[in-house]
Amino acid sequence: MAELILHHYPESPFSEKVRAILGARGLAWRSLIVPMVMPRPATIALTGGYRRIPVLQVGADVYCDTALIAEYLDALGSRPTLYPAGQLLAAQTLARWVDTELFWAAVTLRFLPENMGTFFADPGSAQAFAEDRANFAAGAQVRRPPVDEALARYARFLAEMETQLGDGRACLFGAEPSIADFAVYHMLWFIHAGGGMADWLSSRPLVSAWMERMRALAQHPGEAISAEDALAVARAAEPLPVDAASDITAIPPGTDVHVAPVDYGVMPSHGTLLRCDTRTIVIRREHALTGPVNVHFPRHGFGVVRGD
Ligand SMILES: N[C@@H](CCC(=O)N[C@@H](CS)C(=O)NCC(=O)O)C(=O)O
Known about the structure:
Blueprint (H helix, E strand, L loop, with lengths): L3 E5 L4 H12 L5 E4 L7 H7 L7 E4 L2 E4 L1 H9 L13 H23 L12 H14 L10 H18 L14 H14 L5 H5 L2 H13 L5 E2 L2 H10 L8 E2 L9 E6 L7 E8 L3 E8 L3 E8 L3 E5 L2
Parallel strand pairs: 1-2, 2-5, 4-10, 6-8
Antiparallel strand pairs: 1-3, 3-4, 7-8, 7-11, 8-9, 9-10
Helix pairs in contact: 1-3, 1-7, 4-6, 4-7
Glutathione binds next to helix 1 and helix 3.
């Protein structure tokens, strides 16, 4: 198998979810640090337009969105599955809620002046970030809650989590971490990275201890790779074969399509549809910098439309 190349940046919470899963599963990985703001020419050449971070590149296959990246990594490495059959609905539903509803509360909390810490190195980077995220927000269909609502949502969540851990379990749904643990971990990591809300954790001993166990799993740095080398890896590889199929009658395999998130960061990727089923959407695209690549998206949370 080709090396795992994560396109990410240190401050990105969704990247922290994947870094933690890579660590927990003992997987070697290569780290391609992208800037916190656009442009990201190598990553965009690979995805064809999708700009959210992180992205996992494996040879000439590119996996977008941590929901799909986590499924991909679940098949690799050493620990039990992240998707235990007996808790599947609970774990997946919690992970999806955390990645959306709790995430937007977390954004409100992380950018409170007293919780910002050193997120921005200087006023210039704050300005560049604001301009970039204004572009990123174009066409978004999400609601970022005001502070009082975000605080209440988070307080209630932590109280319920403290209760759930009260029977001595190590992880949210048993002895081993599931996808829900990694989703909750990266959200708490993000909220508490600035240090301004430390007492929210210290007053919840079971959540604090769980957080330390999860943080320990995440300490597994990747080996740096440059954007040029990552592109060379794509050019030297062949995309993996895909069984052509589509569950949308009007959009059969071979159709020119756009694929985009349905909620925010809706910049589409353009390519030829290879597969669309209840789990994934896969397109084939080509760029002078990458050669032919297959770009994979989860079906949940993404839309596919004809490109012509
Ligand atoms: N559902 C997506 C969310 C990804 C996401 O929102 N990523 C943030 C960074 S943590 C992002 O892309 N922000 C804009 C940017 O970095 O350009 C996933 O699970 O990967």
